[in-house]
Amino acid sequence: MNDPEFIMLRNRFLIAIIVALIFTVPLFFFFKNKFLIDESIINKIKKKENITLLIVKRNCNECEEYKKQLESSNVAYIKINKDKDKNYDLLLNDLNMSYTDITMPTIIYIENKKVIATLTNNKSAEEVSSFIKNYNLEGNRN
What we know:
The protein has 142 residues and is an alpha+beta fold. The chain has two domains: 1-35; 39-134, Glutaredoxin. It has helices at residues 4-35, 39-46, 61-72, 88-94, 125-134; strands spanning 51-56, 78-81, 106-111, 114-119. Helix 3 crosses helix 5 (125-134). The longest helix is centred in the N-terminal third of the chain and has 32 residues, at 4-35. It is elongated, with a radius of gyration of 22 Å. The chain starts with a helix and ends in an 8-residue tail after the last helix.
């Protein structure tokens, strides 16, 4: 096995594998993070944790207003983009909801795997504040 041609071929093969891994592993994580809802959200729902979801879509001014209001009230929430997140259907299924139940933006408050309340689009800032106070969501941000 001291054949120089074999050693050179083996080294080229190993370099090709390393280069392929260097490019494919980051791409995998990029696409996983960009296009899949974090499965921990679904696990949190199954574990009956209390969560607040903000469902948004691309180019939505109202969505940004809801987001700002949740952040200014220090609400711990998870943002889900219906246009990007591939597990969106799975999430709706776990919540026993359909596409018609959601209009953008929507805030969903979940306790013990049950949807307790939803707040849909076109609500005033006062109504969003009232929703946050009614369900004691304020100040729960980590």
